[in-house]
Design goal:
The structure holds 2 protein chains of 2 kinds.
Chain A lengths: L2 E12 L2 E12 L3 E6 L5 H8 L7 E6 L2 E2 L5 H7 L3 E4 L11 H12 L4 H14 L15 H13 L5 E5 L7 H16 L3 E5 L3 H7 L2 E6 L2 E7 H6 L3 H7 L1
Parallel strand pairs in A: 3-8, 3-9, 6-7, 7-8
Antiparallel strand pairs in A: 1-2, 1-4, 4-5, 9-10
Helix pairs in contact in A: 3-4, 3-5, 5-6
Chain B lengths: L1 H25 L6 H12 L3 H24 L7 H39 L2 H7 L4 H40 L3 H11 L2 H28 L3 H35 L1
The chains are: A alpha/beta, B mainly alpha.
């Protein structure tokens, strides 16, 4: 499988606090990577850095061999239609309806007719099993529903990579199952993904490879089987 | 002291950069006509009633005070000219702008600030769109368009208020009052006032948008942002009014 995304020697700090100290890894086409690590190890910062919401101090971020870290905000806009970000808190626009939230990227980046936009939005809602919510406001939705709508909005432009920031955090088992099923559907479509999570069972179920961040570096990388079979006490501490 | 000065200079620099980006986005595609219309309705039309009240009350009070004050010197006849000129040149622009700074400025900074702390601004960026184009351009333009119109309406209502007091309290004929107003207030006064208010509108909206984007620390930060915007824009309006008035006098008087 070809590399779709490459991160080389990423260094990032906030004032004196070093977050990443030379992270290097690749994401292959169609692959889903689970990014684990204790709180504050910079998992979300890494996702934000990939799409340029945070600037890295040094290193290289290559998407199809294009250096993303050298692009201006303006130049990053088209890239962000190909690498989507699903926010931890969904970050839905709270002043417009669910339908308008999903239609927003389509109106911005395509010349589709209104009927076609409606069709695409309904397909996306169908994918997350929330067709009945199309006219509701985000505040009318539960946390789990908001996350699924956020995912639907992230995938509506058919991106090549989806970045999931703790999609199951704070959800009950029923909603977690629904979120996992949604991620599995994206995966079945061949979309690559990076999944930041503390939920080991979700990571084991949907990820092809696990990466664990530790003190700004990659403490472990391997397949799910290698993760489960590891004798390393650091890795084992995540499996307890 | 030096640290505070540097901090203020940084804020000024960042507002200048935001203004530059606003101009760049305003003259490039896509332009959100729908959002501009929506903002004019929300910011401009939504401020109509309060603007009318302020205008009428100012006209009533001014005419009352000047009427009785000047009566002692036999100068009641000058009341229409004094009231209409001061309303058109200074009172309506300043009162309306300060009112709008409180109503619209705080509203814009609270809305954008809340969007910022809930990552909605990041979502706009993550979806490949420019928050300045989506949020700043419609709000700034709506304020720049609405404020001069609101001010002119306010001044007009103030003059009408003055007419009612001049007629009822000082038995001044309506025709005389209107005639005096029309001979005192020229088009340069009206357009000068509108120009000043367009400038004030720009300051109010751009500062409010800037502070909204800078908002941190959740709801507490949103509260602090709105207070900062109202205080800062009020001071800027009052100080810049002196210089703009001086400029307009130099140009037209």
């Amino acid at each position: 499988m070809e590399n779709i995304l490459e991160l080389k020697n990423i260094v990032k700090s906030f004032d004196d606090k070093k977050i990443h100290q030379g992270l290097t890894f690749t994401l292959k086409h169609g692959e889903t990577i689970g990014l684990l690590g204790r709180s504050g190890t910079g998992k979300s910062v890494l996702l934000r850095s990939i799409i340029g919401l945070e600037q890295i101090d040094s290193g290289e971020i290559l998407f199809h061999e294009q250096r993303l870290d050298l692009l201006t905000e303006q130049q990053l806009y088209p890239v962000r239609t190909r690498i989507s970000y699903s926010f931890q808190n969904a970050a839905l626009f709270d002043s417009i309806s669910v339908f308008e939230n999903l239609a927003y990227p389509l109106f911005e980046h395509t010349n589709l007719a209104e009927a076609e936009v409606e069709k695409r939005v309904m397909e996306a809602l169908q994918m997350v099993d929330l067709t009945e919510s199309r006219d509701l406001m985000p505040s009318d939705l539960s946390g789990g529903m908001q996350k699924r709508i956020g995912m639907a909005r992230a995938m509506i432009l058919n991106p090549e990579i989806l970045l999931f920031d703790e999609p199951t955090a704070g959800l009950d088992p029923v909603n977690i199952e629904m979120v996992i099923e949604t991620i599995e559907k994206f995966k079945a479509q061949g979309i690559s993904g990076i999944l930041v999570t503390h939920d080991i069972s979700t990571a084991k179920r949907v990820c092809d490879r696990i990466l664990i961040l530790n003190e700004g570096k990659i403490g472990f990388t391997g397949t799910v089987d290698e993760f489960e079979g590891s004798d390393d006490p650091f890795v084992k501490s995540f499996l307890l | 002291m030096i640290g505070h000065f540097k901090e203020n200079m940084t804020v000024l620099g960042e507002i200048t950069i935001l203004s530059k980006d606003f101009l760049k986005c305003m003259f490039t595609r896509p332009f959100y006509w729908g959002r501009l219309y929506e903002q004019i309705l929300q910011l401009g039309v939504g401020s109509l009633s309060i603007t009318i009240v302020i205008g009428v009350v100012t006209g009533l009070v001014m005419t009352l005070q000047f009427g009785y004050g000047l009566a002692k010197f036999g100068g009641t006849l000058y009341v229409p000219a004094i009231v209409s000129l001061s309303l058109m040149r200074e009172l309506a622009p300043i009162f309306t702008s300060l009112l709008i700074a409180g109503r619209i400025g705080s509203g814009i900074s609270a809305e954008i600030g809340a969007m910022n702390v809930t990552q909605q601004i990041d979502a706009i960026r993550a979806l490949g769109t420019n928050p300045i184009r989506v949020l700043v351009v419609p709000r700034v333009l709506a304020t720049v368009i609405s404020l001069p119109l609101l001010t002119t309406l306010s001044a007009f209502m103030g003059i009408l208020g003055g007419l009612s007091i001049a007629y009822s309290e000082f038995s001044m004929p309506a025709g005389f009052y209107i005639n005096k107003v029309l001979s005192s207030v020229g088009l340069t006064d009206v357009f000068g006032s509108m120009f000043k208010c367009a400038f004030f509108g720009f300051i109010i909206a751009i500062v409010a948008c800037y502070r909204g984007f800078q908002t941190k620390e959740g709801t507490k930060g949103v509260g602090q942002a709105t207070t900062w915007v109202v205080v800062t824009t009020s001071i800027v309006i009052l100080i810049s009014d002196f210089f703009l008035s001086k400029l307009l006098i130099l140009l037209f008087d």
